[in-house]
Amino acid sequence: MAISIGQNAPDFTLFDTDKNEVSLSSFKGRNVVLVFFPLAFTSVCTVELCGLRDNISSYAALNADILGVSVDSLFSLAKFKEEQNINFPLLSDFNKDASTAYETIYETFAFGMKGVSKRSAFVIDKEGIVRYSEVLEDAGKIPDFDAIQAVLNTLA
Fold first, then answer.
1. Is 45 a catalytic site residue?
2. Measured distance CA(111)–CA(93) in Å, rounded
3. Which terminus of the chain is more solvent-facing, meaning fewer CB atoms within 10 Å of its CB: N or C?
4. Is the pTM above the cut of 0.90?
5. CB 44 within 8 A of CB 123
6. Distance from first CA to last CA of the chain, Å, rounded?
């Protein structure tokens, strides 16, 4: 069953690029924009995450933190974060637990890769409730960040 607006967001604990465990539940009291992306160093993922990077102040003004999640290793994500000057946490879902919990995982992706995160975005409010959910089947598309900001405006 897909993640629905109004349901409790599935909690997870993943490692960030500094090798720290990060749990979604630790953000209670703040809004979270949770984005899953297929693979670091790919063109669309770079555009998406750099767009978030460049607009981070508008998310901060809405009391929202951004978390980026992919199945890349934390080492790959650390290099990607460094090269692109990403200014929010990137979390490694190498074991695919969060991607599976959010039902945002390709059975088979490009070049026969299995278990890659689908490009998707969720807004989770201060109480841990999902307020926006968008899972894209086409990895070449980017989530509707105007709609995400509109939802955040109702939560501020």
1. yes
2. 20
3. N
4. yes
5. no
6. 29
53, 88 contact by CB (below 8 A): yes
| Gap between the Cα atoms of 65 and 143, Å rounded | 17
pLDDT in tens, 79-108: 999 999 999 999 999 999 999 999 998 777
Q: Could you give the CA distance from residue 143 to residue 148 in angstroms, rounded to a whole number?
A: 8
Domains parsed from the chain with CATH numbers? 28-155 (3.40.30.10)
Instruction: Check residue 74 and report its DSSP letter.
Output: H
Q: What is the pLDDT of residue 1?
A: 54
> How many residues belong to the chain?
156
Q: 112 or 7: which carries more pLDDT confidence? A: 7
Tokens 């490694």 sit on residue: 92
For 46, the token pair is 């770079």
Distance (Å, whole) CA 35 – CA 33: 6
Residue 42: per-residue pLDDT: 83
Q: Which of 33, 40, 45, 64 is catalytic?
A: 45
Q: Quick one: angle between helices 74-84 and 43-54, nearest 10? A: 60
What are 113-134's pLDDT values in tens digits?
678 888 899 999 999 999 999 9
Strand, helix or coil for residue 48? helix
